[in-house]
Amino acid sequence: MTDGARLPSSPRPARMYARTFMLTIDIFTLFPGIIEPVLRESILGRAIARDLLAVRLHNIRDFAADKHQVTDDAPYGGGGGMVMKPEPIFAAVESTLGAPPAVPVFLLTPQGKPFTQEKAWSLAEGKGFALLCGRYEGVDERVREHLAAEEISIGDYVLSGGELAAMVVVEAVARLLPGALGDEEGARGDSHEGSLLEYPHYTRPPDFRGWGIPEVLLSGNHSEVRKWRREQALWRTYLRRPDLLSRADLTDDEKNRVRQWREESEKPGGD
Ligand code: SAM
Known about the structure:
- It is a single chain.
- By secondary structure, the chain is an alpha/beta fold.
- It folds into two domains: 20-174, 3-Layer(aba) Sandwich (Alpha/beta knot), CATH 3.40.1280; 195-266, Trp Operon Repressor, Chain A (Orthogonal Bundle), CATH 1.10.1270.
- It is built from nine helices and seven strands, in the order βααβββαβαβαβαααα.
- The relative contact order is 0.16.
């Protein structure tokens, strides 16, 4: 491979590191208690303590106008389950962020656009955003039509509420903020950066239950290690997520290599 030493390139420009202001994320939910503890731990907790990130939790119930603070009602047309009412949601968002909202409001829903690393980057580079967590059967459709900028799904499965989905988005974005990770460089080679999966990792001991590690990692030859890692990333992506390769930033040599792998596997008896 002529350019094998090149690490998977990040689609992001260096200006990320010039970020000087805190990223604010507003989360609208009926269950802030699900989210609060997660914000205290590990990288998220540190990013918040370092003023890289602010996460503001808003309890939608606080914005329900009636004395029982009702936030859901039965669906028109019948059927099971409850639907989140539009009034408290609009009141919560508009009294916090203005009307129209000053930042994009993303509705979390399994019907939304799949959340990707690329989307995480675009949110990390932006001025801030809001997440709206549904519950029950979901939210009144007028919220989607007239309040949400976009709908985000974290995968093709159904959760009971948007709170864990919101945490997925917050964590994916927070770790991209300059200064949030101990090892910024490490994150640049993460899976899905440059549309490749990451190479395999090993740590001490070099022999565990008779299972060794690739010799090259013990060689001390950094150029050979980089080359091996790049090759592994390419091979893994080819095997596990060939759909990503069309978007990956590959050298001509790497493209040829992938073509060869494909041809070999298409031969009778190939795998
Ligand atoms: N009845 C809805 C449907 O079939 O599309 C599902 C409602 S789900 C039980 C309740 C809430 O969980 C949704 O309003 C949404 O906020 C959240 N949720 C569930 N799965 C999600 C996913 N894959 N991505 C993002 N949010 C999700």
